[in-house]
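Summary for the steering committee. One of the milestones for this cycle was to obtain a three-dimensional model of the protein with Z5A bound, which we needed before selecting residues for the alanine scan. The sequence and ligand used are listed below.
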Amino acid sequence: MEKGKFITIEGTDGAGKSTFVPEMKAMLEAQGYEVILTREPGGTPFAEELREIILNKPMDSMTALLLAFASRNEHIENVIKPALEAGKYVISDRFTDSTYAYQVAGQGVPKEYVEVLEHMVQKQLKPDMTLIFTVPVEISRQRLSKTGKEPDNFESQNNDFFQRVLDGYLSIAKNEPERCKLVDSSKSLEDTKEQVVNIMDKFLGSENKRVKKNKP
Ligand code: Z5A
């Protein structure tokens, strides 16, 4: 059986990524793919408990890093790997690029520490495609304040932190242009949706071609 595909969605707080997850799922299902939606931190009952702690308890940045990978290990072993083995598509709202953006670029954890943990926990697993939603810091702050949600450990950081996270994402996208597709979500919802649809269309187009070619 063909292995499934792993798609991740990334971006700064309030960039609008979660808004488009159902849309992406619908596009894949319309092509006949079975799709699992999941998120990080979280994705399993235990990892969801860790999520509550990561987002809400005061902690050192190294502790946040280790908890993010503890939760990721649970998520990969119990959800992501089995789904991919079964030929399903997995869409995860955040994955390891969040750790590079928030813990490394945002909180100053050495990049090499993340590389070691990534290798230990993920082995060969990498997303097949990543959409990175970007929006200027002022806009993301405005959007977050309108949601009326109580800010978590990350949302309560200052603008400099948000800017470092955004720069971290831009540098990931620059280093891995094949995998990472930028979505400028500073404009209207319609404009952002159009960008997402175009990216998904291209990805599906090349996937469908590849599957046809491999069929006996
Ligand atoms: N974290 C970490 O530090 N290390 C790790 O390894 C991992 C994560 C995996 C997860 O929190 C936190 O964990 C995250 C990093 C850290 N930082 N924080 N906070 P979360 O999942 O609760 O937060 P989030 O991922 O940022 O989700 P969010 O707050 O829901 O933001 P969003 O998904 O980017 O935005 P949204 O909910 O889709 O949209 C926000 C609002 O903007 C909403 O009212 C929309 O209607 C509106 N919106 C969206 N797009 C538009 C456009 N284009 N125009 C106008 N309005 C829009």
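Key point for the committee: The mean pLDDT is 94.
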